[in-house]
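Handout, section 3.2

Students often ask what a structure token actually looks like in practice. Rather than define it abstractly, here is a full record for Adenylate cyclase. The first block is the sequence as you would receive it.
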Amino acid sequence: MSGLEIERKFLVHKRMDWKRLASSSSHIQQGYFAAVNTVRIRIRDDRGYLTIKGPSRDGGLSRYEFEKEITLEEARKLMQLCEPGVIDKHRYLVPFGGHIFEVDEFHGDNDGLVMAEVELGSEEEVFEKPDFIGTEVTGNRHFYNSYMRRNPFRTWRDSVPEEYR
């Protein structure tokens, strides 16, 4: 997949039962390479992906993204070349209001953080938010996976309101 990625990110209320709304889930591990742009290897269940993301535009709302599926073996070998700090999470797909919300529950050094993203067709697209969606964090670098790899949530979790940690 290649093209302009337009997404908004939100914190998820911890005490709400959002998992029962999920239509599916998958386990994701991803590593990063040193680069000017974001270069990522992802293993999602038993599939591998190479992703390159350009710089964010419009306060983090949109950016160019190139993604290509690679073999699981290639992904495992490339993960060994990544910088330290692997992102480990489960992703739940939650259909709501004509959109799919991708809810990520983080593990390891980022344990306790749950975020939701929704991809949009345009920057002005209106969408309905489910009740479990909380504070918007679109464009806040603390909530970029590439940032959390180097600066895990455990080191700054106290800066996030209690209902989100």
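Discussion prompt for tutorial groups: The longest strand covers residues 2-12. How would you have guessed this from the sequence alone?
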